[in-house]
Every structure is written in structure tokens, then in C-alpha cells.
User: Fold these one by one.
Assistant:
Number 1:
Amino acid sequence: MALESKTPSGPIEQKWSKHKFDMKLINPANKRKYSAIVVGTGLAGASAAASMAELGYRVKAFCFQDSPRRAHSISAQGGINAAKNYQNDGDSVYRLFYDTVKGGDFRSREANVYRLAEVSVNIIDQCVAQGVPFAREYGGLLDNRSFGGAQVSRTFYARGQTGQQLLLGAYSSLSRQIGLGQVAVYPRTEMLDVVLIDGHAKGIVIRDVVTGQISSHAADAVVLATGGCANAFYLSTMGLAANVSAAYRCYKRGAFFANPCFTQIHPTCIPHTGEFQSKLTLMSESLRNDGRIWVPKNKGDKRPANEIPENERDYYLERKYPSFGNLSPRDISSRSAKEVCDEGRGVGPSGYGVYLDFRDAIKRLGKEVIAARYGNLFDMYQRITDENPYEVPMRIYPASHYAMGGLWVDYNLMSTIPGLFVLGEANFSDHGANRLGASALMQGLADGYFIIPYTIGNYFAGVGAKNISPDRSEFKAAEKEVADHIKKLLSIGGKQTPDMFHRRLGKIMWELCGMARSEQGLTKALQEIPRIREEFWKDARVVGGADQMNMSLETAYRVADFLEFAEVMCVDALDRSESCGAHFRVEHQTAEGEALRNDDQYAYVAAWAFKGVGQRPELHKEPLQFEYLKLATRSYK
Amino acid sequence: MNLTLKVWRQENAQARGRLETYEAREISEHMSFLEMLDVVNEDLIKQGLEPIHFDHDCREGICGMCSLVINGIPHGKEKATTTCQLHMRHFKDGETITIEPFRAKAFPVIKDLVVDRSAFDRIMAAGGFTSINVGGAPDANAIPIPKADADKAMDAAACIGCGACVAACKNASAMLFVGAKVSQFALLPQGRVEREKRVRAMVAQMDKERFGACTNQYECEAVCPKEISVEMIARMNREYFRAAVKPQASAKAVGA
């Protein structure tokens, strides 16, 4: 199957405007004849559901949390980028476009990224009008800060809770539509399958997690906004229930999975402390604006940080990348931390940590200024570690954080299944092989507020309203498959909990498909994952029944999907025999240890088609053309 | 450390609940409270018993999904801390800990420690928004907002909607939650356009959900993990009074 990106022709600055004009419209009176299902109520899902409802489409929104307000977008701390150039420091749509493509190491689609940069300015307007309390300056105008990988100050923020505030903004718009009866919301429901009718996605099968009841919902299109798959690593910065199941079920029904190996490892998280740990906590990257990252120059230096004199400290990011220093992009910062720890210079009990030190910033600006900027983050750090970061440097280490890869979508955000649209982190389209800081919130809201409302109309106008009944045989068959799968899980009757398998999988993924990957390691992972999966189906223990709230069962079906999906990640990582962005293959590096891309052979999107569990998926390539930006080696020196 | 837990178990909304006793063995002081419960649950599953159900997700104190009344206090006795951010170093070896769900008529128990807080969502749907559609917003810097107002609005907006305020209140009042949302919008020019309509609609829905009224005990502020101030309640009362003395402009549903 040929992958058609459906990128409009014409100059890049005009593509989106031209496309908006070319797309078919549905007249206001007819819009209510069309319905859409939105799965997930994070930034992408809530904004999509609200804005489609505002247009007059009938929308059903589903989330597994107890309220749409709790989706994991809420955890984003640092900020959201927009090319407003309010700071008069040389920003522009073109610069944001350039930075994002370059930051993604030239593995994203130019036209999509340009559109993202273009609509970024509208997002901020929309959020302010919703009452999002962004940080302001004394004159009453919006404040900005610079953020990892950017030399301009284009990041808007609301203390250390930007994701929360943007999500509550989208949730308030969604709530308004719920109140008006334009959106029906289904919290505590989990999507367990997508249903195709005549090749088009026309509904989903869900499980009500309170009653265990399995039912179907039909609509004219399905919009998936179910977030990323970073919990394949078990420990990550994701919420505990975040999973790949919805996207993975779509993949099994024919949606291609693009660049699954592109997973971001965030450089500033609180280090791992023990086997019992359930998640890793991110410390906002904004801390890198004032904190300096260092390790002792000497191996095994166990002195307390404050007793190590200046000349025995190695500020390795400042040393290696003088122009970006502590603000170097995430992939580079993470890998550098791993390198110094592998050399034996890491700090903390495990030796897997580096210092993030505010001593100089406190000296320069005073404790009050630092407290005003980062107070809540410092408190959070102290709560978790019992150490006071005003007095001793924070200890940080990289952790799995974000999936740049996701279901393949064309320029209209439609997957290879017609009628199935994928938004936000769940798609692959905008961040290439590495996402820049403060760009995830931007992409989620761009997709939901400003792109899907147009492109879904074009799809509807093309296929017409079908008014499909969820009682059709296709739905009943899918419901039965879901029920059988659950029955099978409940009847394994083994000895190990699903979490035990998840932890084992996570360890393999972190070690062999994490910050540094090799042919040998990935081959080993591809042997071990099927073994764990086989053992899971023989020895997992899932307690309780199907017709009740059953968190053991919920964990089990998520873990079962991760045990299949992880293999696709490793296949992709092995197949991409180059280093780019977050994907670092040790075989491909420069003499200085920097990532070495291979544009002649790998300047494409790898989109994988499902061929059966345990079978090698089939690779489809979407070649990437760079008409505006010259393929260049990233340099942050 | 080793602990004894007395945990509220209840099969479903209709069943009668009871406190059951469990032993939590070899708990590290670095664990969070929920990680301690994870350990207990893994043991239960291995024995073929149903794990203790509780709501949780982000485990970094921001999603508002975790709850629990720990030794009689919502989110436990540490100040400004959600249950997921409460660490075991605050407990003593050999201690007995009682764990119950948030209790309020408007928050019925679903199972064990899981409660239904959808009443909060219905209050939000009644008026917790500005009635603007995507597309028409003016430039974000078109209306300057004094920094002090923006900061106060942010203090209000920091609410995570966990419901601890309701669980701590002897009247099961939701006025801190509603007051925070009303205040956020009343402090910003974008929200002032609909201030009367909003406060009337949200308070009416709050009453309909059978939350009680505030009698100024400030238990809500004391347990709030985000330290939302009871000033929010005072501001909501002012807004409500203001709306009451202003003639109602339109009977149309808020948001329409």
C-alpha cells in the first residue's frame, strides 16, 4: 500500500490556507446529522471534542479517568511554545518551524510542522480568552521564557502547571458543550476495539470499568487522542494507567504504526530509588534555565556536593555545547548524562544521577526570585526526596517521557483506516525523532482546536452521514472478541501479577531499547519479549470477575498489549540502522560520540502494518522531502 | 517498617462496607503511600484475593484522582500534600493506619476506596467556563491584565478538583471548589462578562448535588493539597450577592 501524505501543493506558507479553501464544507444545518467519537480527553481530545461540538457536530467523548479533567496532559509543567515574537527577539513562524524540524533531526514532515508553527499563535489567543491564567509581566502583558533547545523566548507558562491550566481550559470548553447537550461524556470507560464498516472506522467497543459491561458506540468518524506509549518502559513520567491499548487495537485493525522506536527520554527526572517504585517524576526542564548541570571530574567521588570545589566539577553540557549549554535539546542532554554515569562519575546512592545546581543562580538572583520561578517544583522535589534543593543540588537522571512515534496519519490527521483520525501524542506527525520542550502542548491543542474541525468536515462531506446502528453484526462480533479476550485473561490462573511482567518488560526496554541501542541488544530484546509474553499467558494471575470494577483485569489487558507492542518498537529500532534524535544506535556515531544520521537511506517515516502477533510487521515507507530546510547535521556547540 | 492497615472494603455501591485488617510488611520509608498499597495489593493478588481498589493516576500530585482519608484526614496529615505524594517516612514502624474513602452524600462509594465525584463535573458543566468558541479570540495581549490579578487567578486555578475539601467538611460543602472556579473567572476580564450568570448557575447546581453550605470552620483550607484559601469562598459569596441584587438579563441557559 502506497502511503499518501496528501500534503497540499504550493509554497509552504500557503499550503494550509489553500487546503482550508479546497476542503469541502458542510452547511451549518447539516452538521448535526454527523457524529464523532473522541477517545481520550487530554489536550488533543478535549479540544477536539469541544471545537467539533461548537461547530454543531454531535460528539461522544470517552475517557478511562473518573473525570475528563484528569487526563495526563495535566502533568505537563514547563510551558507551551508559540511564535508570537512578543519578546522582540527574532522569533517567527518560520523560525519555530525551522527549530522544530531541526530539533526533530529531520525526521518529520515539513508541511505538518509548518502548519503547527502557523496555528501556534492562535492557541495562545484561544487559551487567554478561556481564562487560562498565564504568567504576566508587571505591565499586564504575557511573560515568556526560553526552553530547552531554543534561543528565543517563545514559551508561555502558568507557573509550573502549564499543562494543568491548558487542560482545564480545554475541559471548561468541553464542559460547556456537555452542559449544552452537544457532547455526551463517558468517563470510566475504556476503548477496547475499533469497528470498521466497509473499511471505514464507524465506532468503538468499550468496557465500562465500574460495571464491567461491554457495549458499542457508532458514529460517522472516530477520533483517537489517547496519548503516548512511554509506559512500555514500565517506569516513565506517564500516569500509571497510561497505555497503548487503544492505539494498538487500531493497529491490529489496519492502522499503520509510524516510527514506534522514537521515544523521548527526558533529561531531568528524579532518579530511580528502588524496586517498589511505581513511576518516575519529572522535574520541569525550565529548571535548566537557571540550574547548572554537573558531575565530579573524578570517578567515584563520594563527597557531598557542596564539599566538591569548583575546579573539580565538570559542567559537561556547558563544556561540550558552549552555545546551548544547559539548554541543549533533550536527547543530547539525556545521552550526555548517561555517558558520565557510565564513566563512573554519576552521583547519588545508585550512581545513576547528575547534579542540577542552583547555587550560582541563588547567589546571582536571590532565593526569593528562584522561589518565585520554581517554588512549587522545589517543594515537590523535597517532598519526594527529603532533600532541600535550596541548600543541596538536585539529583536528576533521564527517564522515559514521550512518544514521538504513533499511528501514521496524513496531512488531514487521518490514519490508514479511513474515518479514523489520530491527534496529539497518539499520532507521529510533528516531532520527528526528538520533540523540543514545550511543543507537546502546542501540538495537542493545534490538532484539536485548529486542524481536526476542518479536516473532519472534509471527510464527512466526502462520505455522507451514515447513521449506523451499534447493533450491527460487525459490532456484535467485536464485542464478542473483547469479551473472549477478557475471559481468557481471567482464566490463566497462574502465580505472577501482571505488574511483575510489566516490570520485567520495562527493564528489557530500558536497557536494550532505551537511550543507547545496538543490533546485538535489540536482537536479544526480540528474543526475550516473546518469551515473557508466552509466560504471561501461562502464569499470570488475574483475580476478580469480568462484571465488576476490577483493576487487576484492567492492568492485565494493558500489560498484554504492551507485551505485543514492545516487539514492534524493537523491530523498528533494529530496522533503522542510523542514529537520529532520540534514536541512538551505538554503531552509528561520530568520533565525538554524536548521533550520525544516514539521510541517503533513512530519510523516511517507517510505518508498520500488523501481520499477526509474533509475526514481523510489514514496513511501508513514506519518503521525507525537505524542500525548505536543508538537511544538516544538528550542532548545538 | 511494618504496619497494620485497617482498610474500608465495599464490593460495590449497594453493598455494606466494613473495615478489614491487613499487614504491610517490609515497607521502605522512601515509598509513597500508594506504593505501600501497591505492595499490599501484589500480595493480595498472589493469594488470589481481590486487591484494594483506590483511584490514582499521575502520582505526582496534579491530576486530582487520588483521594483516601488517612487516619481521619483527607490526604493524610502532611500539609499541602496529596496522598500520592505522601511518603512513608512520615509514619512510624508498628503504626496502625486507618484508610477510608472520601465520605459525602454527593460522593457515593463505587468500590472500596473509590468514590464517584462526577458531581464536580456537573457543576463545571453548569457554568465553569467562558462562553467563547474557537476562532474568534482577540490577540492574547489585547487586554493587559495586572500581574497581581493574574497571580490571584492562578492561585484559584491551581485547584485539582480532588474533593478533599468536601471530605473534610462536616457539612460536605463544595464551596471551596466552586469558590475557586468562580474566583478565577471573576478576577479576569475574560471571565467577568458572564460573572452573574456563572455564579448563579454553579451555586444552583452545587445545591442540587446535595453539597452542604459553609459554616466557616476552614477544614477545607486545612486539608487542601494546593492550599486554596477560604478567601475564595468569601469572594464567591460576594459574587453571589452581587448577582442577586442585579436584575437577571436573560433567562437563557448559561453558555448558550
Number 2:
Amino acid sequence: MAAVLGALALWAVIAHGNALAGVVNPVLLPTPVEVGRVALDLARSGELAQHFVTSLGRVIQGFGLAALAALGLGLLVGICVPLRFMAEPVIEFVRPIPPLAFLPMFLVWFGLGETSKIAFIGYTTFFPMFVAIAASVLRVDVVLLRAAASLGASRADLVRRVVLPASLPGIVVALRVGFGLALFVIVGAEFMGADAGLGHLIMEGRTFFNPAQIVMGALVLGLLGSVFNTLLLTAERRLLRWRAAA
Amino acid sequence: MAAGAKIQVQRVSKSFTVGRRQAPALADVDLEVAEREFVCLLGPSGCGKSTLLNIVAGFLSPTTGTVLVDGRPVTGPAPERGVVFQEYALFPWLTVTGNVDFGPAMRGRPAAERRESVARYLDLVGLRAHADKFPAQLSGGMKQRVAIARALANNPAIILMDEPFGALDAQTREVLQDELSRIQRVEHKTILFVTHSIREAVYLADRVVVMTSVPGRVKQVFAIKLPEARDRFAPEFTHYEAEITGVLKEEVAKVRE
């Protein structure tokens, strides 16, 4: 918290100093007060909330669908050996393609509406989450599976009572990475074709030459990311109590 | 004894594929364990004794031969055969209670019965005060006590133990041997116990089965005719130790050659 306030103070000093000394055109280097004023204006008119909710909705839907798919398929591939041999080469081929390269394809397929953004976020976040979850399922200690089987666990019990809890630490990390990525690509998707959302707001700031609005959009995105990260960390601490127990 | 034996290992061989070669681990092992008998498998490291235990547990299938339990062939792991592992294999996300309760919960036992059996077996291994701790908070000796309670709470007829005290320090090891010997006098399980410690085998077993070096076969069987509560310093005890040491040395020497 102190570090955040420190950074804010540093920004204020630099921006206000520049405004006084005129090193660069002050419009290019907005002060915290100016950014705050833009935020206040947009909040009063209800626009900020609308853009925020639009972006958040897209992120939650795209990320949520991808997370469910990654969890289901990750568990399946981690458990079932033949499936793994089929999936691996495909994934290894698709994964290195920078997701943004496919963004225009999504716009061609799904148009400029909500579907293209949600599908694109889903596509981008699915692969890293899926690969990480499948890997953590594969790392589950075979001795734990043997112990459970010798205690009478069925195949379904093994998945629910052993594989899932044992790979939970890996799953939580995968979700955090996935959400960060979702915030990363939503901006790109909204740059390219959207009439609402924080990415659109930032682009509008460029179009109407309003750097303060650009900075504000970026800060709101950062805030969203850190709020979600905090939520997941709290959930992680509760769910993985046993790990820190020592 | 053939018809009545609880566990019958019949001409079991096992080889593993290493690269392109077949590496034999067990060759034609025959072994019978009577009901309520405590049998120790003893042999030089890498002689396949753990492999044999894993086959009896149903974790591995033999290349040839069969294992019968109560006359029926073993096809996979089952709750009638509890297993205690050297690396404890506790579920780290469950408390001590959750671990001990795992088997009864899996088999859908009624809640009242489960509570009772958890309490009983935690008492038996002296861990009632630690019921709500997680495995990460326990010492190695305590973890293995939990693992033993977990196996017993599922009420198996057979308990298979794979070097269960191998990772413990010498003092803890003897304490746990004492406890296991005391528990066996109460519970009367059929136990197959893998170890590389002669002293441990003589202290615990009704019979000690000495195996040859790779590929493992049964070399010699010693019936330990000592009272149930044993004295590690009695002359008879040391006599068995010396005798088995002599036989085992030949096998260890073969590995060295």
C-alpha cells in the first residue's frame, strides 16, 4: 500500500514538475489530478460504469468458459493416456501462435458484437490454462492413487477425492495466469472493433487526443486485475490451508 | 497348509521393459502366508521384494504366475488388502481424522461407525491429540502412525507394508516396531512386510523369507520361534540375527561382484 502511494506521489511530482518547467507539452503528461477529473466526469455521466461492466462481462464470460473447458479437458487428458498422445502434438503446434494473430479471424467469424470478444478471450486463455492444468494432473503422485485405490476408492472417487485436490495448487495458478491474460487481450480486442468497454475508452482517448483518459483506462484495468488477484489469493489461502500448515 | 493359506503366490515372475531389453525382477516365486501370520520379506536392495508386494497389492500384474487371496486371483487393489507405504502416502489436504476416515468413507460406512473407528484407531496409535492436524504438521514417525491407523480403520484382513519404517531414524524405528508388534497382538492381521533390516525382521516376523539378489527368488525361509513379545538382546534373538546375516551376506556379495 505504501509503495502504491509512493509511486502515485512520484508520478505527481514528475507530472506537476513538467507542467511548471514545460519540458514536454503538459497535455502529453497528465497529472493525477487531471486523470482523477476525467474519471470523475465519466463516473458522473455513468459512462465509466457502463464501459467497465461491458469489459468485465466479456472477460468473465470468455475466461469463465475457457476455465471450465480447461478444467474438464485438462483432467481428462491428464488421466487418460491415449487422449494425451492425441492432444499433445496439436497443442504444441497451436500454442506458440501469438493469440493476437488470430484476432482478425475472430472478427471475421463472429462480427463486431459481443461473441467475437468472448470467443477471442476464451481462445486465448484456454491453452495456457489447459496445458497447466493437464500438467498438474500428471504430476499427481502415483502413490496417493495407489493408497486411495487400496482403501476402496472407485475410479470416480480417485478423480474427485485424489486427483482434484492434489492438483488444486496447480489449478489455482492456472486460473490466475488465465485471468491476467484475459485482461491483457480484452484491450486488444476492444481496440480493434468495439463501441464500448475500457479498451474502447482508451482508444477514444487517442482519437480525441485526451491522454488523461488513456491513463485512466489503463489504471482501471490494473485495479480490476489486482482485485481479482487478491480474491484468488484469498481463496487459495483458504483452500490450500493444508500446504501452509507446517 | 496349501488350501488354507490366506495369500498364495504361485510361480510369479515379473520383468520390466528397460529401453528395449527385458529386465527380470522376480523369477518363479512361490510363497504362502497363513491367516494371521506375520511374514517379513528380506533381501538385498533391488531384489524385487517391493515388486512382489506391489503384485500382491494389485498395483502391478505379474508377467507369469498368479497371486491368490482366499483362493481367488488378485486382479487389482481392493480394501481387503490394506497397504502401508515407505513414503507414508497420506493425503496432505486431509487432516489426520480425514486420512484415517478415508477408507470407511469410500466404502460408505455409516457415520456413527466411522466416528467410532477413527477414534479407536487414533487411540491405538496414540495420536488422538493430533486428530485435527494436517500431515505437514507431523513428524515422520507420526505420519507413519497415521498411515497405519488409516490402513487398520478400513478393517482389511491383510496388511501389506513396504519398508514402512525405512525413512525413520533408528530410535523412532524401534518405537514403531514395538507399537506394531503390540497392535498385531490385538488385531491379528495377516501381514506381509518388506524390509532390508534383519533385526526388524527377526523382531516382528513369524517367518522371515530371505530372497536372492536380482532376479529375486525365495532363497531360504526361517521360522522365528520366539515369544510374541520379543527381547532384542536375548541370546536366541541374536542367534537368529547371526544365522540370517550369514545367508543374506552371500546375496549381497553377489550384487557386488
